[in-house]
Specification:
By secondary structure, chain A is mainly alpha-helical. In chain A, 76% of the residues lie in helices and 0% in strands.
Chain lengths: 84, 494
């Protein structure tokens, strides 16, 4: 569990870095980099985008594993008295 | 100078039993609370004599009957813990009140310790149910069928601060703070305008601006005047409008920023009028606008978004602290508040690691797009509920936390410690340590008193009128010199 958390932490860092890179590009602050580097950067970002998508797929799969069955019945039966 | 802010929260949890046709919430709560056994010797009453929930901060008393259960029922419904907290049955919900703390970081630690106490009790109680049945507990505030239960915050403030100042400034703050601490909800209820998803669990339930009630016609500012401390000096502001948060960052911002704004009110550092026209309507409109772009009419004229109103509070706070010493936690809260408001102005969905309503919304939207379901689908409603499930292996917030998808404020080690040990810088330390050291001699407890039954003498009640006395620094020597409760009572009364 701990190992996977570290892996996720790394992913979060990568995500943030990608985000910053994108913002930099949008604001045109990356003007002096050659077009070759840009191409490589885009490929790398596409790869990271792919990783993020896989990560989200795996999260949604995991949610399906724990999500209560018979959701309709379950949600209908969840009735509380008002509190406070 | 504002008072040091002694703070604490009371969280009511949702409860249900799976596979039990005769589910009764009250007996399930009693079972739950009694399944938590930290100390077999302790048989401690909750001391209702000190309580007066019908006193009103505006200066009058309300007629009504106070609820005082008999002794056996009292003990069955109330557990005061070694960490200074109260774990109890409130109407038809299990409730956890944190011990008094002096800063928002400790508040987060102790509120999360409460979640662990709840989960430990839930597991123990489930083993006592017929085979196949088990308890489920949710840290949320609504069943989405028009029934709400609370998350109450308490802030100790100076009684000299006119209550009308609190109402004038804190009310617009409370109406708009949900943008960074709402817990998110699919749909609307309580005859509120239909919507797919909204920011707050609670906003639909607020029907008036200022009042004493908490269960019907809920007010944005609650006037309960029960300081649980020296009434000449203090007021305990009882804030009932908030959502229970799972995200540590959301709790930290909700309580941390509120503490800052109250300090500004006490020091009269808010000079601009931020009153909103029709706050009861606006609190719902803010909740129903997850884009955070809508503008609201101000009493002073003109229109502002919820983010802009919060930014005005922030600017006042930055001015206030620019000429004062600031502790590291307050500084951290200010920095995060500023960053969060910046992201809310730009695109709220950037806060998908920090703010509950955004975290939940993102997961639901990703789920909907992959599973081809819409907001009305039962699975989406299930996600909405199960986000708040306190089970570490099944709760969706816990799943995200385990996968490192959300930001944290405190560590698991700190939380584990707080399950057993009271904060050492408030009177909660004295309360908790008395229960740890003399469990069979403690007769009754309330926030501002503890009474002892030692031998033939009448019950001795020790008053604790000062929330910042009874700290470890104050009472360590006293405890060292008091191996028994008899010694303690003698040392205190002689």
């Amino acid at each position: 569990m701990r190992i996977s958390r570290h892996a996720d932490d790394r992913l979060a860092v990568v995500w943030k870095a990608a985000d910053q890179q994108q913002k930099k590009k949008q604001s045109g602050g990356d003007g002096d980099s050659s077009s070759d580097e840009d191409g490589a950067g885009q490929k790398q970002m596409a790869k990271k985008g792919e990783e993020l998508k896989e990560e989200m797929d795996s999260l949604i799969d995991e949610i399906d594993e724990v999500l209560e069955e018979n959701a309709e019945e379950f949600v209908k039966n969840y009735v509380q008295r008002g509190g406070e | 100078m504002p008072l040091p802010k002694v703070i604490g929260t009371e969280i009511e949890y949702g409860i249900t039993v799976q596979n039990d046709r005769d589910f009764d919430p009250i007996s399930s709560c009693v079972l739950l609370v009694n399944a938590y056994r930290e100390n077999e010797e302790a048989q401690i009453l909750w001391d209702y004599e000190q309580e007066n929930p019908l006193a009103d901060a505006r200066g009058f008393h309300v007629e009504g009957e106070k609820y005082t259960p008999n002794q056996q029922e009292n003990i069955a419904r109330n557990k005061t813990l070694m960490n200074g907290a109260r774990f109890y049955v409130d109407h038809a919900h299990p409730e956890y009140s944190t011990p008094e703390v002096t800063n928002v970081r400790d508040l987060v630690v102790h509120e999360r310790a409460g979640e662990r106490v709840m989960e430990t009790a839930r597991r123990a109680a489930s083993t006592l149910l017929p085979q196949g049945s088990y308890l489920l507990i949710y840290k949320n505030n609504s069943d989405r069928k028009g029934n709400s239960y609370g998350c109450h915050e308490n802030y100790l403030i100076d009684r000299r601060t006119p209550f009308k100042d609190v109402v004038a400034h804190f009310l617009p703050f409370l109406v708009t703070r949900q943008i960074f601490c709402g817990a998110g909800k699919v749909g609307s209820e309580n005859r509120s305008t239909p919507c797919t998803y909204q920011i707050s669990q609670r906003a639909d339930f607020f029907e008036t601006e200022v009042a004493l009630d908490t269960m019907v016609k809920r007010p944005i500012i609650n006037t309960r005047d029960e300081p649980h401390a020296d009434r000449e000096k203090y007021r305990r502001l009882h804030v009932i409008v908030g959502d229970s948060n799972l995200s540590e960052v959301s709790t930290y911002l909700r309580v941390g920023v509120s503490t800052i704004v109250l300090a500004l009110i006490e020091d009269r550092a808010l000079d601009r009028d931020l009153s909103i026209v029709d706050p009861v309507k606006v609190i719902k409109e803010v909740s129903h606008d997850p884009a955070c772009k809508r503008e609201y009419l101000m009493e002073r004229g003109g229109r502002l978004t919820a983010v802009q109103m919060q930014q005005e509070f922030l600017e006042a706070a930055l001015r206030y602290f620019s000429s004062r010493e600031i502790d590291p936690i307050t500084k951290d809260v200010l920095v995060r508040w500023e960053q969060t408001l910046g992201k809310l102005a730009e695109d709220p969905m950037q806060l998908d690691r920090e703010v509950d309503w955004v975290i939940k919304r993102k997961v639901i939207e990703e789920y909907m797009s992959r599973r081809k379901v819409d907001w009305g689908h039962p699975q989406v409603q299930m996600l909405d509920l199960q986000y708040h499930d306190i089970r570490p292996d099944r709760g969706l917030y816990h799943l995200l936390e385990r996968r490192g998808e959300v930001d944290r404020i405190v560590s698991d080690e700190e939380i584990a410690r707080a399950v057993e040990i009271a904060p050492d810088d408030t009177r909660a330390y004295f309360r908790g340590e008395c229960i740890r050291r003399y469990p069979d001699a403690v007769f009754g407890v309330n926030w501002d008193s503890i009474s002892f039954n030692v031998g033939e003498d009448p019950i001795k009640r020790i008053l604790m009128n000062e929330p910042l006395k009874g700290t470890k620094a104050h009472v360590k020597e006293l405890f060292d010199a008091s191996p028994t409760a008899t010694d303690l009572v003698r040392n205190l009364t002689s």
